[in-house]
């Protein structure tokens, strides 16, 4: 039977009970809101440590550094060494070059979110040292803070939707990829890191290939048969510790890295852009899936690809790659492996020196970083014989020193 309106089920909700129920609901909602706010606050507090400790604000280019002792971002107070601070900071973040700097009164800075300042110990400033190592909390008595303009990198200018087992790339997708050609023939790949410098592998420069006027750098196209942009080479610096150049009988491919200076600065475009280097002390993450690109052979005994190839492959832990089933302790601290245990996708001949790039957002904006250089491997795409790459973050001080030491010095040099 249907209960009549105003029956016993309704009479139990007295005004006092309605008030109590309302208060209970409000308290419950308040508790939920407090819990949500706590989660949001926790996430906001934990966001900063996930970023690199040195940042450039996109709005006004102010330089800020995270103080992990009290969990706050602090501006860097201006000093007489602002230019050097700018250069060191940009390089530390993987941006290679400082394009300039400026100084602003703290009160004029928009979007002020800093809760303090850092001052620079100018006597301790040097390349290769983290900027935090020369900073100390201060009151910034001059009231002026530093803004820094770093070279942009690791971002495509175009919207984009032979590696063995890879697929054709598209124009502008990997705008830092270059082809290194000797007497007009493709020998190695390389990566643009600034308007003058290319990173590649040392093994691309055996003694028979050290005549500079026979080298050319091809870029701005994914087709080997396309004209693209061709630049001559002014300087080659290869690592003096690359063992096969010292003793061909030594089975150690450590220090397989080189840098090349172009004869004239590049003009960046939709199809030619620099890639970022890793930030100082940034580590590779085992299992992270990254990209390898190149025009190398699409089979071990095959022909080079006419179209730039790309493939996604994961980083393999050193412990796995040094096991007996893989490379049996041949992987040193300056190398790493990437690929699949079953094989099938790998770099091959002709990909040497080319980029292994990983994407991250440690500088707030998503960027690609040159984490590896194609170095060596047993065969191509064989099971448990993945590609081996030079670990770029191991050589950041070497790259920096080579560029500063041999800037505007034509020739082929060996540097340890």
UniProtKB/TrEMBL annotation:
Membrane-spanning intervals of the chain: none
Residue ranges annotated for the SRCR domain, each copy included: 49-151
Gene Ontology molecular function terms on file: serine-type endopeptidase activity; serine-type exopeptidase activity; serine-type peptidase activity
BP terms from Gene Ontology: blood coagulation, fibrin clot formation; protein processing
Keywords tagged on the record: Disulfide bond, Glycoprotein, Hydrolase, Protease, Serine protease
Gene Ontology CC terms, in alphabetical order: membrane
SUPFAM superfamilies, per the entry: SRCR-like, Trypsin-like serine proteases
Cited Pfam families: Hepsin-SRCR, Trypsin
SMART domains: Tryp_SPc
Domain of life: Eukaryota
Peptidase S1 domain: residues covered: 163-404
This protein's name: Hepsin
Organism: Lepisosteus oculatus
């Amino acid at each position: 039977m249907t209960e009549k309106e105003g029956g016993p089920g309704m009479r139990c909700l007295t005004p006092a009970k309605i008030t109590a129920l309302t208060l209970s609901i409000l308290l419950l909602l308040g508790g939920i809101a407090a819990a949500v706010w706590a989660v949001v606050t926790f996430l906001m507090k934990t966001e900063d440590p996930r970023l690199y400790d040195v940042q450039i604000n996109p709005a006004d280019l102010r330089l800020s550094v995270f103080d992990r002792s009290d969990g706050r971002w602090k501006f860097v107070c201006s000093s007489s060494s602002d230019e050097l601070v700018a250069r060191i900071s940009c390089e530390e973040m993987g941006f290679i070059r400082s394009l300039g700097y400026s100084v602003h009164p703290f009160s004029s800075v928009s979007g002020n979110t800093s809760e303090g300042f850092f001052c620079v110990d100018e006597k301790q400033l040097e390349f290769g040292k983290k900027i935090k190592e020369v900073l100390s909390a201060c009151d910034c008595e001059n009231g002026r803070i530093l803004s820094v303009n770093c070279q942009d990198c690791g971002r495509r200018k175009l919207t984009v939707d032979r590696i063995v087992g890879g697929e054709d790339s598209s124009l502008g997708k990997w705008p830092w990829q270059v082809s290194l050609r000797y007497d007009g023939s493709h020998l190695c790949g390389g990566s643009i890191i600034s308007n003058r410098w290319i990173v590649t592998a040392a093994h691309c420069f055996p003694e028979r290939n050290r005549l500079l006027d026979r080298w050319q750098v091809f870029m701005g196209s994914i087709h080997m048969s396309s004209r693209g942009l061709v630049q001559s080479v002014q300087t080659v610096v290869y690592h003096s510790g690359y063992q096969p150049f010292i003793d061909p009988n030594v089975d150690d491919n450590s220090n397989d890295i080189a840098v090349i200076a172009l004869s004239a600065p590049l003009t960046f475009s939709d199809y030619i852009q620099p890639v970022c280097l890793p930030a100082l002390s940034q580590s590779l993450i085992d299992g992270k899936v990254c990209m390898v690109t190149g025009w190398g052979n699409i089979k071990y005994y095959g022909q080079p690809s006419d179209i730039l190839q790309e493939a996604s492959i994961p980083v393999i832990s050193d412990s796995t790659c040094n096991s007996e089933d893989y490379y049996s302790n041949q992987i040193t601290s300056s190398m790493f492996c990437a690929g699949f245990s079953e094989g099938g996708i790998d770099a091959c001949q002709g990909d040497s020196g080319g980029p292994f790039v990983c994407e991250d957002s440690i500088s707030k904006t998503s960027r690609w970083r040159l984490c590896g250089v194609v170095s060596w491997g047993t065969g191509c795409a064989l099971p448990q014989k993945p590609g081996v790459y030079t670990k770029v973050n191991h050589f950041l001080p070497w790259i920096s020193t080579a560029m500063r030491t041999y800037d505007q010095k034509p020739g082929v040099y060996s540097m340890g």
